[in-house]
Specification:
Elements: E1 2-8, H1 14-22, E2 27-32, E3 35-40, H2 46-57, H3 69-91, H4 93-109, H5 115-118, E4 126-128, E5 132-134, H6 158-176, H7 180-201, H8 210-226, H9 235-250, H10 252-255, H11 263-290
Antiparallel strand pairs: 1-3, 2-3, 4-5
Helix pairs in contact: 1-2, 4-6, 6-8, 7-8, 7-11, 8-11
Length: 291
């Protein structure tokens, strides 16, 4: 995503946005302080988008004749939804791929009820005989290193899945629009840190993307605080998620009947994301000093 143009808050961008959508140029309008920022989804369309904006500003583009408010709204919404969805799948394939894997694992594990299948993804192997039990220790990781990150795909309830899935789609797309490699590295590093931290605390059956989510939040916070802001995540969201983490550590969720919370996974993922953010910041400053 690239900044295309800024306008005062008083500017009516209706004709500009309709013109861009009409020419299949996906974009987004953000409101920041006293400005409206027009962001372009695909930087390869930058020249085309600038030309279209200039045409609108110079009056070379006339408003489309009215089709009636209902018909116009329907046509515009359908066109925008189709182009916008195609652009998002094109620009953020990793985010959607991981999300689809989450859904697939939920279906084949029956939300964690089929322990035979759950054992394919759990950090500790599960032996299912007359009774099911976990195999403790870390020796199995030499032969099955995928277990270091595979628990992130496990979810044990619909609320658990929806909460993590929505956060992943939001944060993952923000980061992947900037760099697919950064998102992939964060996914691996934060998942590994979260799972190892939780497994180090106790031998238990755990899973979910929560550790990764906290890692992405930590990374975004560092990058926007110590560099030119690029993700624009509202401060209120960061505060809410930190409060959620503290409530989990307090034991309140267990008392209310929500079950055990993998607090060490949240902390491990958050620390890994923060460290990755500072490392990325350091590398950016080295690169900047050489130019």
């Amino acid at each position: 995503m690239i900044l295309l143009h800024t306008f005062p808050n008083s500017t009516d961008l209706t004709l500009i946005t309709k013109t861009l959508w009409h020419h299949k140029v996906p974009h987004r309008v953000r409101f920041l302080d006293a400005q409206q920022q027009l962001w372009l989804q695909d930087d390869t369309q930058y020249a085309q988008a600038q030309a279209l904006i200039q045409q609108v500003v110079q009056g070379a583009v006339e408003p489309q004749p009215s089709l009636g408010m209902g018909a116009l709204s329907t046509v515009f919404t359908a066109m925008r939804s189709k182009v916008f969805a195609r652009a998002f799948f094109k620009l953020t394939p990793l985010t959607y791929l991981v999300f689809c894997l989450m859904l697939l694992v939920v279906l084949i594990t029956q939300l964690g009820r089929d322990l035979q299948v759950v054992s394919w993804f759990s950090f500790f192997p599960i032996v299912v005989n007359v009774q099911a039990y976990l195999v403790p220790g870390f020796d199995h990781l030499w032969q099955q290193p995928f277990r270091l990150i595979s628990p992130m795909l496990l979810h044990f309830g619909w609320l658990h899945l929806v909460f993590n899935g929505l956060w992943w789609l939001d944060l993952g797309k923000r980061i992947e629009r900037e760099s697919k490699l950064v998102l992939l590295s964060l996914l691996v590093v934060t998942s590994l840190a979260a799972n190892v931290a939780q497994a180090w605390q106790e031998t238990s059956l755990f899973g979910g993307m929560s550790g990764v989510i906290y890692g992405l939040l930590g990374y975004i916070w560092v990058m926007d605080r110590y560099n030119v802001p690029r993700y624009h995540l509202p401060q209120s969201i960061l505060i809410f998620m930190l409060l959620w983490l503290l409530l989990g550590l307090s034991g309140l969720f267990l008392y209310l009947g929500f079950g055990n919370i993998a607090n060490m996974a949240h902390i491990g993922g958050l620390i890994a994301g923060v460290v990755w953010g500072f490392l990325h910041t350091y590398l950016l400053r080295i690169r900047s000093s050489k130019q």
